[in-house]
């Protein structure tokens, strides 16, 4: 029977390693005279003494296995490499909806060019928004890590300060949307 059924197994629960003795010791052992028993000895203690290697303590099997620690899930979403593409497609979708709504009123070349700039600007704005959110996540992570690992913060400070791809794309999207407003006036 097993421990799952409620009964315990007989023995130590560990693999037993046979003791191999050289042939010279095996032959000499029966020829020696048996030692007289000075005191009554429990047979279980003798069996345990024979099984254990000198200097080793008996161990018990582990009954409860600790659960592995899962990674900490914070309130922040980890974005993959395709997140800016998805943001850009969302911006293009919003630009397409804008074209469908305003397409009937655009009669001149300037109005149609303004709609093209609006679609391009909204697509760039969608990508910039996702990249900016990822940059904010990295800044928050950096501020959390500043307590534990100050030397790592200095290495990433140059990457997040100054002109980042998110800030550049945001500035270019603003410029393209400004062009859309300028062309349509």
UniProtKB/TrEMBL annotation:
Q: Where is the composition biased (Polar residues)?
A: 1-12
Q: Where is the composition biased (Low complexity)?
A: 22-38
Show the segment(s) annotated as Disordered. Answer: 1-38
Q: What UniProt keywords are attached to this protein's entry? A: Membrane, Transmembrane, Transmembrane helix
Transmembrane ranges, per UniProt, are 76-101, 113-133, 168-184
Put simply, this protein is called Uncharacterized protein
Gene source species: Blastococcus haudaquaticus
């Amino acid at each position: 029977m097993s421990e799952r059924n409620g009964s315990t197994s007989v023995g130590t629960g560990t693999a037993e390693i046979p003791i191999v003795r050289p042939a010279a010791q095996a032959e000499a052992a029966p020829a020696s005279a048996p030692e007289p028993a000075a005191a009554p000895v429990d047979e279980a203690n003798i069996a345990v003494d024979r099984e254990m290697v000198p200097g080793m303590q008996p161990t018990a099997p582990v009954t409860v296995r600790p659960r592995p620690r899962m990674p900490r899930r914070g309130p922040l979403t980890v974005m993959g490499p395709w997140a800016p593409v998805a943001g850009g497609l969302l911006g293009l979708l919003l630009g397409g909806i804008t074209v469908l709504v305003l397409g009937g009123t655009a009669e001149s070349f300037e109005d149609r060019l303004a709609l093209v700039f609006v679609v391009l600007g909204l697509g760039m704005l969608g990508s910039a928004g996702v990249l900016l959110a990822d940059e904010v996540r990295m800044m928050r992570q950096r501020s959390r890590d500043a307590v534990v690992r100050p030397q790592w913060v200095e290495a990433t400070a140059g990457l997040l300060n100054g002109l980042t791809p998110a800030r550049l794309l945001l500035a270019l999207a603003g410029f393209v949307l400004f062009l859309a407003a300028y062309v349509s006036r």
